[in-house]
Amino acid sequence: MDLPIIWAGLIAFAVLAYVVLDGFDLGVGILFGVERGATERDTMVNSIAPVWDGNETWLVLGGGGLFAVFPLAYATILPALYPAIIGMLLGLVFRGVAFEFRFRATTNWGRLAWDYSFAMGSTFAAFCQGLALGGLLQGIKIEGRGYAGGWWDWLTPFTVLCGFALVVGYALLGATWLIWRTDGPLQARCRAYAIKLGIATLSLIGIVSLWTPFLHPRFLERWFHWPGIALTSPVPLLMALLAWLGWKALHNANSHIRPFACALGWFVLCFAGLGISMFPLMVPPSITIWDAAAPYDSQLFLLVGASVLVPIILGYTGYAYWVFRGKVKPGVHYH
User: Fold this and answer.
1) Which residues contact residue 37 at a Cβ distance below 8 angstroms, ignoring those fewer than 6 apart?
2) 8 Å CB contact between 291 and 282
3) What 8-state DSSP symbol labels residue 324?
4) Which one-letter DSSP state was computed for residue 212?
5) Which residue, 137, 163, 185, 248, shows the most beta carbons closer than 10 Å to its own?
6) Residue 73 · residue 292 · CB < 8 Å
């Protein structure tokens, strides 16, 4: 068995699961900045309260898998992206604290302060994730088997663009999630938000997609030369198809889940395009999956544990979403 490929697939799946699942609840937090009503904010929080903790399991699985199975990649990526990763973790911690404390606030000012803390923590965590993604894509300077770059290599116009794009994209996921899970005026406003955010997200995806191939010759060859173009050309075509379906769904008041499904599809296609660009690199521009892998016996031992753990995570995640399915009504509190 080519265990490095299997493990790369598992970690990629964990990262994608985190992005699409925690992405929408981060998006709900980002939208706290534009929603003013206390009742609407309570409804928004209650739509994600049963599942948001479980969504972050995939981040732990992805990070832990990288540490255990691809130690060279872990030891290279973290020093290069420490500020962005630490910022993301602090944002997630701040957001988690605000999530719980807002329900215990005894004054309107206290509730408002925690609400804005929840919005800022969500936005900052999303932005830092985009910085980390951009920093990885633009490449990490390596000498021998270690990071050889500077303190600020992760901060460039490209990484800032990626950070802003991810904030907007997560806000779109949050808006379409609320279209699915709420009714009434809040749903109508989220439909209006999603139309604007959808246009902005597609525009930013286009800009990042056009910029990315010029970061490395390997990316450029994969996207614009044969035979790589045979793999990459379906991605923008499918993106255009989903954009058309999403646009129709957002303008159909009876369509509730399709806008969310289309937005998730955009993220899946972007992730597929990212995989096509990078494979077989683990750390651009030089460390491949096989270079970064742990010894075969270690990979095999960990794969046995993952074969038990991953189905359990999938099982309880699916069960939680099934139990807490349906519309969230104003005044019905999870806490």
Assistant:
1) none
2) yes
3) T
4) G
5) 163
6) yes
State the Cα torsion 108-89-165-175 to the nearest 10°. -40
**Maximal CA-CA distance, the chain:** 64
Q: Are 290 and 280 in contact (CB under 8 A)?
A: yes
Could you give the CA distance from residue 185 to residue 138 in angstroms, rounded to a whole number?
Answer: 42
Residue 188: which residues within 8 A CB-CB, separation 6 or more? none
CA distance 200 to 279: 28
Rounded to whole angstroms, how far apart are CA atoms 54 and 52? Answer: 5
Those residues of the chain that have pLDDT short of 50 are: none
Q: Is the peptide bond before 280 cis (omega within 30 degrees of 0)?
A: yes
pLDDT digit string, tens, across residues 55-92: 888 988 888 999 999 999 999 999 999 999 999 999 99
Residue among 251, 213, 260, 204 at smallest CA distance from 25 = 260
Euclidean distance between CA atoms 306 and 37, whole angstroms: 44
Give 156-193 pLDDT, tens digit per residue. Answer: 999 999 999 999 999 999 999 999 999 989 999 999 99
pLDDT for the residue numbered 334: 59
Q: Supply the pLDDT for residue 335.
A: 56
Pairing of strands 281-283, 146-147: unpaired
Q: What is the pLDDT at residue 130?
A: 95
